[in-house]
Design goal:
The protein has about 130 residues and is an alpha+beta fold. The protein has a three-stranded mixed β-sheet with strand order 1-2-3. β2, α2 and β3 form a beta-alpha-beta unit. α1 packs across α2.
């Protein structure tokens, strides 16, 4: 009687074509949601306006992203009298810089809506009235 021979299983895998290594940047796509870019824009506007008027609402941003281009609209409340144009220019620069830096998107323009002006005269008069009481 003969015993069946035991073969050692081969450790070699069947020959397959070795897939070429694909660089990570070419494996897929990363999509950053519009609301995430809007949060970056709103935070950048807060940074540009620091310090803000006490009663002013935080800046709000809406963003539309198409491919790698972000269209941004920021709503602000500012002190008056002040250099509104300079404040808006500062917000535009900071918002564009942060979105380009963090989201790697082009920002061709940043639209600014000034929703409310807070009078420094009214605020100082209100503070004076409070102190007199």
């Amino acid at each position: 009687m003969s015993t069946p021979s035991r073969e050692t299983p081969s450790r070699e895998t069947p020959s397959r074509a070795t897939p070429s290594r694909v660089p990570p940047a070419e494996r897929g796509a990363t999509r950053i949601a519009d609301r995430v870019v809007a949060k970056i824009a709103a935070q950048a506007a807060r940074e540009a306006l620091a310090p803000r008027p006490e009663q002013a609402a935080a800046p709000h941003a809406t963003v539309t992203v198409h491919h790698d281009i972000a269209r941004v609209r920021v709503s602000l409340e500012l002190d008056y009298p002040s250099d509104l144009a300079a404040q808006c220019a500062s917000v535009r620069r900071r918002v564009a810089l942060r979105i380009e830096e963090y989201a790697e998107m082009a920002v061709p323009e940043v639209d600014i809506d000034i929703e409310h002006l807070h009078s420094t005269h009214t605020r100082s008069a209100a503070g004076r009235d409070r102190r007199l009481r």
